[in-house]
Amino acid sequence: MFHTDYPYFSSGSSVMREHFENTANKFLEQELIGSDPFIVELGSNDGIMLRTIAKAGVRHLGVEPSGGVAEHARAQGINVLTEFFEATTAAAVRAEYGPADVVYAANTMCHIPYVDSIFAGLDALLTPGGVFVFEDPYLGEIVERTSFDQIYDEHFYFFSATSVDAMARRFGFELVDVQRLTVHGGEVRYTLARAGARAATPAVAELLAEESVRGLHDRDCLARFAAEVGVVRTELIALLHKLKADGATVVGYGATAKSATVINYCGITPDQVRYVVDTTPAKQHRVTPGAHLPVRPAEAFAAPYPDYALLFAWNHAEEIMAKESEFRAGGGKWILYTPNVRVVD
Ligand code: SAM
Ligand code: TMP
What we know:
The chain contains 12 helices and 13 strands. It has helices spanning 14-30, 50-55, 67-74, 87-97, 115-125, 139-144, 161-170, 202-214, 219-246, 257-266, 317-323, 325-329, and strands at residues 38-42, 59-63, 80-81, 100-106, 126-137, 173-181, 187-194, 250-253, 276-277, 295-296, 308-311, 333-336, 342-344. The site of thymidine-5'-phosphate has 17 residues, from helix 11.
Protein backbone atom coordinates (compact mmCIF):
# COMPACT_ATOMS: atom_id res chain seq x y z
CA MET A 1 0.00 0.00 0.00
CA PHE A 2 2.67 2.46 1.01
CA HIS A 3 4.75 2.66 -2.15
CA THR A 4 5.83 5.20 -4.77
CA ASP A 5 2.30 5.62 -6.09
CA TYR A 6 0.51 5.89 -2.74
CA PRO A 7 -2.23 8.29 -3.81
CA TYR A 8 -3.12 10.15 -0.61
CA PHE A 9 -1.72 13.68 -0.51
CA SER A 10 -2.45 15.27 2.86
CA SER A 11 -2.26 18.86 1.62
CA GLY A 12 -5.41 18.63 -0.55
CA SER A 13 -7.54 20.13 2.22
CA SER A 14 -7.16 23.73 3.43
CA VAL A 15 -8.63 22.78 6.82
CA MET A 16 -5.97 20.09 7.24
CA ARG A 17 -3.20 22.49 6.15
CA GLU A 18 -4.29 24.87 8.91
CA HIS A 19 -4.64 22.04 11.44
CA PHE A 20 -1.07 20.86 10.86
CA GLU A 21 0.36 24.36 10.83
CA ASN A 22 -1.21 24.90 14.25
CA THR A 23 0.13 21.52 15.40
CA ALA A 24 3.66 22.42 14.32
CA ASN A 25 3.45 25.80 16.05
CA LYS A 26 2.28 24.11 19.24
CA PHE A 27 5.32 21.81 19.18
CA LEU A 28 7.60 24.78 18.50
CA GLU A 29 6.16 26.69 21.46
CA GLN A 30 5.79 23.88 23.99
CA GLU A 31 8.19 21.01 23.26
CA LEU A 32 10.94 22.09 20.87
CA ILE A 33 12.37 24.68 23.22
CA GLY A 34 15.70 23.19 24.38
CA SER A 35 18.98 23.83 22.65
CA ASP A 36 19.01 22.22 19.18
CA PRO A 37 15.74 20.27 19.54
CA PHE A 38 14.85 17.41 17.18
CA ILE A 39 11.44 16.13 16.01
CA VAL A 40 10.69 12.97 14.01
CA GLU A 41 7.40 12.47 12.21
CA LEU A 42 6.14 9.05 11.13
CA GLY A 43 4.01 9.22 7.99
CA SER A 44 5.01 12.80 7.20
CA ASN A 45 3.41 12.40 3.76
CA ASP A 46 3.77 15.50 1.54
CA GLY A 47 5.24 17.57 4.39
CA ILE A 48 1.99 19.15 5.55
CA MET A 49 3.18 19.42 9.19
CA LEU A 50 6.99 19.43 8.87
CA ARG A 51 7.07 22.36 6.44
CA THR A 52 6.33 24.73 9.33
CA ILE A 53 9.05 23.09 11.45
CA ALA A 54 11.54 23.31 8.56
CA LYS A 55 10.70 26.99 8.03
CA ALA A 56 11.45 27.63 11.70
CA GLY A 57 14.91 26.11 11.16
CA VAL A 58 14.36 23.31 13.69
CA ARG A 59 16.01 19.91 13.20
CA HIS A 60 13.50 17.40 11.91
CA LEU A 61 13.13 14.14 10.03
CA GLY A 62 10.11 12.66 8.30
CA VAL A 63 10.03 8.87 8.12
CA GLU A 64 7.77 8.22 5.16
CA PRO A 65 7.84 4.96 3.16
CA SER A 66 5.70 6.22 0.27
CA GLY A 67 8.23 7.57 -2.24
CA GLY A 68 5.94 9.89 -4.21
CA VAL A 69 4.61 11.90 -1.29
CA ALA A 70 8.06 11.88 0.36
CA GLU A 71 9.55 13.41 -2.79
CA HIS A 72 6.92 16.12 -2.69
CA ALA A 73 8.02 17.01 0.85
CA ARG A 74 11.71 16.94 -0.07
CA ALA A 75 11.08 19.40 -2.89
CA GLN A 76 10.04 21.89 -0.19
CA GLY A 77 13.32 21.50 1.70
CA ILE A 78 12.03 18.98 4.25
CA ASN A 79 14.35 16.21 5.42
CA VAL A 80 12.71 12.83 4.75
CA LEU A 81 13.88 9.23 5.07
CA THR A 82 11.97 6.94 2.69
CA GLU A 83 11.57 4.01 5.09
CA PHE A 84 8.96 2.33 7.26
CA PHE A 85 9.39 3.32 10.89
CA GLU A 86 10.16 0.28 13.03
CA ALA A 87 12.78 -0.75 15.60
CA THR A 88 15.70 -0.99 13.16
CA THR A 89 14.87 2.31 11.41
CA ALA A 90 14.63 4.05 14.80
CA ALA A 91 18.04 2.74 15.84
CA ALA A 92 19.56 3.99 12.58
CA VAL A 93 17.93 7.42 13.03
CA ARG A 94 19.18 7.64 16.61
CA ALA A 95 22.72 6.71 15.50
CA GLU A 96 22.72 9.37 12.79
CA TYR A 97 20.82 12.25 14.42
CA GLY A 98 20.83 11.60 18.18
CA PRO A 99 17.71 11.39 20.37
CA ALA A 100 14.36 13.01 19.52
CA ASP A 101 12.43 15.33 21.82
CA VAL A 102 9.19 14.62 20.00
CA VAL A 103 8.03 11.74 17.82
CA TYR A 104 4.74 12.55 16.12
CA ALA A 105 2.35 10.56 13.94
CA ALA A 106 -1.01 11.67 12.50
CA ASN A 107 -3.40 9.18 10.90
CA THR A 108 -0.53 6.73 10.71
CA MET A 109 -0.52 4.60 13.90
CA CYS A 110 -3.95 3.25 12.94
CA HIS A 111 -2.35 1.81 9.78
CA ILE A 112 0.53 -0.01 11.49
CA PRO A 113 -0.15 -3.48 12.92
CA TYR A 114 3.31 -4.02 14.47
CA VAL A 115 3.15 -1.82 17.58
CA ASP A 116 5.82 -3.88 19.40
CA SER A 117 8.44 -2.80 16.89
CA ILE A 118 7.14 0.80 16.93
CA PHE A 119 7.49 1.03 20.71
CA ALA A 120 10.93 -0.59 20.68
CA GLY A 121 11.82 2.15 18.18
CA LEU A 122 10.35 4.89 20.38
CA ASP A 123 12.32 3.57 23.33
CA ALA A 124 15.52 3.73 21.28
CA LEU A 125 14.82 7.16 19.83
CA LEU A 126 13.19 9.39 22.46
CA THR A 127 15.10 11.47 25.01
CA PRO A 128 14.32 10.55 28.67
CA GLY A 129 11.82 13.43 28.87
CA GLY A 130 10.61 13.16 25.27
CA VAL A 131 7.04 12.57 24.11
CA PHE A 132 5.33 10.43 21.52
CA VAL A 133 2.26 12.26 20.23
CA PHE A 134 -0.18 10.62 17.84
CA GLU A 135 -3.69 11.33 16.58
CA ASP A 136 -6.15 9.03 14.89
CA PRO A 137 -9.91 8.58 14.39
CA TYR A 138 -11.46 8.04 17.82
CA LEU A 139 -13.50 4.90 18.53
CA GLY A 140 -15.83 7.00 20.70
CA GLU A 141 -16.72 9.22 17.70
CA ILE A 142 -17.03 6.29 15.30
CA VAL A 143 -19.66 4.79 17.59
CA GLU A 144 -21.29 8.15 18.38
CA ARG A 145 -21.57 9.21 14.72
CA THR A 146 -22.17 5.73 13.27
CA SER A 147 -19.19 6.50 11.03
CA PHE A 148 -18.66 2.86 10.15
CA ASP A 149 -16.82 3.86 6.97
CA GLN A 150 -13.74 4.56 9.11
CA ILE A 151 -13.54 0.77 9.20
CA TYR A 152 -11.65 -0.25 6.06
CA ASP A 153 -8.80 -2.46 5.07
CA GLU A 154 -6.02 0.05 5.67
CA HIS A 155 -7.27 0.98 9.16
CA PHE A 156 -5.89 -1.67 11.48
CA TYR A 157 -6.64 -0.03 14.86
CA PHE A 158 -9.53 2.04 16.24
CA PHE A 159 -8.04 3.63 19.32
CA SER A 160 -9.67 4.85 22.52
CA ALA A 161 -8.09 6.36 25.66
CA THR A 162 -8.65 3.00 27.36
CA SER A 163 -6.84 1.02 24.67
CA VAL A 164 -3.99 3.52 24.31
CA ASP A 165 -3.53 3.63 28.09
CA ALA A 166 -3.19 -0.17 28.14
CA MET A 167 -0.88 -0.20 25.10
CA ALA A 168 1.39 2.47 26.60
CA ARG A 169 1.77 0.59 29.89
CA ARG A 170 2.64 -2.62 28.07
CA PHE A 171 5.68 -0.89 26.58
CA GLY A 172 6.90 1.10 29.61
CA PHE A 173 5.14 4.32 28.63
CA GLU A 174 2.20 6.26 30.09
CA LEU A 175 -0.68 8.17 28.59
CA VAL A 176 -0.12 11.70 29.94
CA ASP A 177 -2.52 13.81 27.86
CA VAL A 178 -5.49 13.52 25.54
CA GLN A 179 -7.06 16.17 23.37
CA ARG A 180 -10.24 15.86 21.32
CA LEU A 181 -9.86 17.04 17.71
CA THR A 182 -12.63 17.83 15.24
CA VAL A 183 -10.70 16.87 12.08
CA HIS A 184 -11.43 13.70 10.08
CA GLY A 185 -14.77 13.18 11.75
CA GLY A 186 -13.47 13.34 15.32
CA GLU A 187 -10.07 12.24 16.52
CA VAL A 188 -8.07 12.12 19.74
CA ARG A 189 -4.48 13.30 20.07
CA TYR A 190 -2.69 11.09 22.59
CA THR A 191 0.54 12.16 24.32
CA LEU A 192 2.72 9.38 25.75
CA ALA A 193 5.83 9.74 27.89
CA ARG A 194 8.15 7.25 29.53
CA ALA A 195 6.62 5.85 32.73
CA GLY A 196 7.13 8.34 35.59
CA ALA A 197 8.59 11.07 33.37
CA ARG A 198 5.53 13.36 33.30
CA ALA A 199 2.38 13.84 35.36
CA ALA A 200 -0.85 13.07 33.52
CA THR A 201 -3.24 15.96 32.90
CA PRO A 202 -6.80 15.71 34.34
CA ALA A 203 -8.10 15.23 30.78
CA VAL A 204 -6.75 11.65 30.77
CA ALA A 205 -8.74 10.49 33.81
CA GLU A 206 -11.80 12.36 32.49
CA LEU A 207 -11.78 10.61 29.12
CA LEU A 208 -11.07 7.21 30.68
CA ALA A 209 -14.03 7.73 33.03
CA GLU A 210 -16.27 8.89 30.17
CA GLU A 211 -15.47 5.76 28.16
CA SER A 212 -16.18 3.58 31.17
CA VAL A 213 -19.55 5.27 31.86
CA ARG A 214 -20.52 4.94 28.18
CA GLY A 215 -19.52 1.29 28.19
CA LEU A 216 -17.55 2.01 25.02
CA HIS A 217 -15.74 -1.33 25.22
CA ASP A 218 -18.79 -3.37 26.17
CA ARG A 219 -20.37 -5.85 23.83
CA ASP A 220 -23.80 -4.15 24.18
CA CYS A 221 -22.46 -0.78 23.02
CA LEU A 222 -20.84 -2.31 19.95
CA ALA A 223 -23.95 -4.40 19.20
CA ARG A 224 -26.03 -1.18 19.22
CA PHE A 225 -23.48 0.38 16.88
CA ALA A 226 -23.77 -2.60 14.51
CA ALA A 227 -27.57 -2.26 14.49
CA GLU A 228 -27.33 1.47 13.70
CA VAL A 229 -24.92 0.73 10.85
CA GLY A 230 -27.53 -1.66 9.41
CA VAL A 231 -30.17 1.11 9.52
CA VAL A 232 -27.87 3.47 7.59
CA ARG A 233 -27.37 0.84 4.91
CA THR A 234 -31.11 0.14 4.57
CA GLU A 235 -31.95 3.84 4.33
CA LEU A 236 -29.15 4.71 1.91
CA ILE A 237 -30.04 1.84 -0.42
CA ALA A 238 -33.74 2.89 -0.31
CA LEU A 239 -32.89 6.52 -1.07
CA LEU A 240 -30.65 5.64 -4.03
CA HIS A 241 -33.35 3.29 -5.41
CA LYS A 242 -35.96 6.02 -5.14
CA LEU A 243 -33.76 8.65 -6.80
CA LYS A 244 -32.98 6.25 -9.64
CA ALA A 245 -36.69 5.52 -10.10
CA ASP A 246 -37.40 9.27 -10.11
CA GLY A 247 -34.81 9.75 -12.86
CA ALA A 248 -32.59 11.96 -10.67
CA THR A 249 -28.83 12.03 -11.30
CA VAL A 250 -26.45 11.24 -8.43
CA VAL A 251 -22.64 11.51 -8.31
CA GLY A 252 -20.25 10.79 -5.47
CA TYR A 253 -17.97 13.50 -4.04
CA GLY A 254 -14.53 12.34 -2.82
CA ALA A 255 -13.07 8.95 -3.80
CA THR A 256 -12.08 8.40 -0.18
CA ALA A 257 -10.75 5.15 1.23
CA LYS A 258 -13.80 5.30 3.52
CA SER A 259 -16.12 5.25 0.50
CA ALA A 260 -14.94 1.74 -0.42
CA THR A 261 -16.65 0.49 2.73
CA VAL A 262 -19.92 2.31 2.04
CA ILE A 263 -20.04 1.52 -1.68
CA ASN A 264 -19.38 -2.19 -1.28
CA TYR A 265 -21.38 -2.70 1.92
CA CYS A 266 -24.41 -1.00 0.38
CA GLY A 267 -23.89 -2.56 -3.05
CA ILE A 268 -23.87 0.83 -4.80
CA THR A 269 -23.56 0.49 -8.59
CA PRO A 270 -22.53 2.92 -11.38
CA ASP A 271 -26.18 2.76 -12.33
CA GLN A 272 -27.09 4.57 -9.09
CA VAL A 273 -24.02 6.76 -8.60
CA ARG A 274 -22.67 7.55 -12.08
CA TYR A 275 -19.16 8.54 -11.05
CA VAL A 276 -17.15 10.00 -8.18
CA VAL A 277 -15.25 13.28 -8.42
CA ASP A 278 -11.93 13.79 -6.65
CA THR A 279 -9.15 16.40 -6.80
CA THR A 280 -6.35 13.80 -6.50
CA PRO A 281 -4.72 13.27 -9.93
CA ALA A 282 -3.58 9.73 -9.00
CA LYS A 283 -7.19 8.66 -8.37
CA GLN A 284 -8.68 10.20 -11.51
CA HIS A 285 -9.54 8.08 -14.57
CA ARG A 286 -9.45 4.97 -12.43
CA VAL A 287 -12.35 3.15 -10.76
CA THR A 288 -13.34 2.62 -7.14
CA PRO A 289 -12.35 -0.75 -5.62
CA GLY A 290 -14.90 -3.54 -6.03
CA ALA A 291 -17.87 -1.64 -7.46
CA HIS A 292 -15.89 0.10 -10.24
CA LEU A 293 -17.50 3.53 -10.07
CA PRO A 294 -15.47 5.77 -12.43
CA VAL A 295 -13.39 8.47 -10.71
CA ARG A 296 -13.29 11.82 -12.50
CA PRO A 297 -11.54 15.15 -11.87
CA ALA A 298 -13.29 17.71 -9.67
CA GLU A 299 -14.20 19.78 -12.74
CA ALA A 300 -16.56 16.99 -13.86
CA PHE A 301 -18.84 17.91 -10.96
CA ALA A 302 -20.15 21.03 -12.65
CA ALA A 303 -20.34 19.66 -16.19
CA PRO A 304 -23.28 19.54 -15.73
CA TYR A 305 -24.14 19.52 -12.01
CA PRO A 306 -25.99 16.38 -10.91
CA ASP A 307 -29.29 16.62 -9.01
CA TYR A 308 -27.72 15.00 -5.94
CA ALA A 309 -24.17 14.59 -4.63
CA LEU A 310 -23.38 11.77 -2.23
CA LEU A 311 -20.69 13.22 0.03
CA PHE A 312 -18.19 10.44 0.63
CA ALA A 313 -15.65 12.99 1.96
CA TRP A 314 -18.11 13.97 4.73
CA ASN A 315 -15.23 14.73 7.10
CA HIS A 316 -14.43 17.71 4.83
CA ALA A 317 -18.13 18.71 4.55
CA GLU A 318 -17.77 22.33 5.64
CA GLU A 319 -14.86 23.02 3.29
CA ILE A 320 -16.41 21.21 0.31
CA MET A 321 -19.92 22.65 0.72
CA ALA A 322 -18.48 26.17 0.95
CA LYS A 323 -16.34 25.59 -2.15
CA GLU A 324 -19.28 24.11 -4.08
CA SER A 325 -21.86 26.71 -3.01
CA GLU A 326 -22.99 27.17 -6.62
CA PHE A 327 -24.18 23.56 -6.72
CA ARG A 328 -26.67 24.21 -3.92
CA ALA A 329 -27.56 27.65 -5.22
CA GLY A 330 -28.58 25.96 -8.49
CA GLY A 331 -30.90 23.53 -6.68
CA GLY A 332 -28.39 20.69 -6.09
CA LYS A 333 -28.77 18.60 -2.94
CA TRP A 334 -26.15 16.88 -0.78
CA ILE A 335 -26.71 13.38 0.56
CA LEU A 336 -25.07 12.65 3.91
CA TYR A 337 -25.11 9.27 5.64
CA THR A 338 -23.42 9.83 8.98
CA PRO A 339 -24.73 9.80 11.67
CA ASN A 340 -27.90 9.13 9.62
CA VAL A 341 -29.07 9.30 6.03
CA ARG A 342 -30.35 12.75 5.09
CA VAL A 343 -30.68 15.15 2.19
CA VAL A 344 -29.39 18.70 2.64
CA ASP A 345 -30.71 21.33 0.26
N1 SAM B 1 0.27 12.31 8.48
C1 SAM B 1 -0.47 12.56 7.25
C2 SAM B 1 -1.85 13.09 7.55
O1 SAM B 1 -2.30 13.00 8.70
O2 SAM B 1 -2.50 13.57 6.62
C3 SAM B 1 -0.55 11.30 6.38
C4 SAM B 1 -1.49 10.26 6.83
S1 SAM B 1 -1.62 8.92 5.67
C5 SAM B 1 -3.25 8.40 5.96
C6 SAM B 1 -0.63 7.65 6.42
C7 SAM B 1 0.85 7.77 6.09
O3 SAM B 1 1.60 6.85 6.88
C8 SAM B 1 1.18 7.47 4.65
O4 SAM B 1 1.84 8.57 4.07
C9 SAM B 1 2.05 6.21 4.72
O5 SAM B 1 3.00 6.13 3.69
C10 SAM B 1 2.65 6.34 6.10
N2 SAM B 1 3.10 5.08 6.75
C11 SAM B 1 2.55 3.85 6.69
N3 SAM B 1 3.24 2.98 7.43
C12 SAM B 1 4.26 3.65 7.99
C13 SAM B 1 5.34 3.31 8.85
N4 SAM B 1 5.52 2.08 9.31
N5 SAM B 1 6.21 4.28 9.22
C14 SAM B 1 6.04 5.55 8.79
N6 SAM B 1 5.06 5.94 7.97
C15 SAM B 1 4.18 5.00 7.58
P1 TMP C 1 -9.79 11.82 3.39
O1 TMP C 1 -11.22 11.87 3.86
O2 TMP C 1 -9.13 10.51 3.67
O3 TMP C 1 -9.01 13.02 3.81
O4 TMP C 1 -9.86 11.88 1.78
C1 TMP C 1 -10.47 12.97 1.13
C2 TMP C 1 -10.58 12.67 -0.35
O5 TMP C 1 -11.45 13.64 -0.92
C3 TMP C 1 -9.26 12.77 -1.10
O6 TMP C 1 -9.22 11.76 -2.12
C4 TMP C 1 -9.30 14.14 -1.73
C5 TMP C 1 -10.77 14.38 -1.92
N1 TMP C 1 -11.16 15.79 -1.79
C6 TMP C 1 -11.73 16.43 -2.91
O7 TMP C 1 -11.92 15.81 -3.96
N2 TMP C 1 -12.07 17.77 -2.78
C7 TMP C 1 -11.87 18.45 -1.62
O8 TMP C 1 -12.19 19.65 -1.56
C8 TMP C 1 -11.30 17.77 -0.48
C9 TMP C 1 -11.09 18.50 0.81
C10 TMP C 1 -10.96 16.44 -0.62
